[in-house]
Design a protein that fits this description.
Length: 222
């Protein structure tokens, strides 16, 4: 089983500091929602994000959407050999059922994730996505990981994804991938997962790295 953790994902509801910003207010009015019920999104709230600490990296639910689409629609997941979790910038751990098929439309996907962050689950019974509180990186690994843990990092040694199964123990391997646009980590992931790798010498989008890892794990398993 391959387990992938999207770490430090720039996924959050609109924080109170910018709830009154005109971009946020206009969006909330159009959605018939209170500002704090919406996902922070650079595409819609760029000026508001600039008023936040680390504002250049925050508000990127698209990274989560593209990565989940890439992984959950792929052959490895359909074979029942993939588990995916998201660790948001505030520490919230989001768990995802492997049979989840994320909405392709941006608005529907954002609405789904906003509901999960607001209510703790996508549905009242048998949810496809749900939260498990706020966790440190070490606590996330305790809850999710199995087998060796490798963290994708721009300074890591290049590793052909097809050799990932050789790194597994008992068939299990856990990969930590960055959920930020910079490809780095804002919290203590470096200490929690010190062993690093990268799939290509040049920087790649996280969803591309995720797809390469899933495909390599499947093909390398024979």
């Amino acid at each position: 089983m391959l387990r992938i953790i999207l770490a430090d994902a720039e996924l959050e509801l609109v924080p109170a500091e910018v709830a009154g910003h005109p971009q946020v207010r206009n969006h909330a009015k159009a959605q018939n929602r209170r500002p704090g019920e919406l996902l922070l999104d650079q595409n819609l709230h760029r000026q508001a994000c600039r008023q936040l600490e680390d504002g250049d990296r925050r508000g990127r639910p698209d990274i989560v959407q593209y990565t989940l689409l890439s992984l959950l629609e792929g052959p490895l997941c359909r074979q029942g050999r993939l588990d995916v979790a998201v660790h948001a910038r505030d520490g919230t751990l989001v768990r995802i059922r492997p049979d989840t098929r994320p909405p392709r439309g941006e608005q529907r996907f954002h609405g789904l994730l906003a509901k999960v962050l607001r209510d703790g689950a996508s549905q009242d019974k048998d949810p496809l996505l749900w939260t498990e509180g706020r966790r440190t990186p070490r606590e996330v690994l305790d809850a999710v990981a199995a087998g060796p843990v490798l963290r994708h990092d721009g300074d890591g040694a290049v590793l052909d994804p097809t050799v990932l199964p050789a790194r597994a123990v008992g068939g299990d391997l856990t990969l930590v991938l960055p959920g930020s646009p910079r490809g780095d980590y804002a919290t203590a992931w470096a200490e929690a997962a010190p062993d690093t790798f990268r799939v290509f010498p040049e920087p790649l989008n996280t969803w591309t790295v995720a797809a390469e890892c899933a495909a390599g794990f499947r093909m390398g398993s024979g």
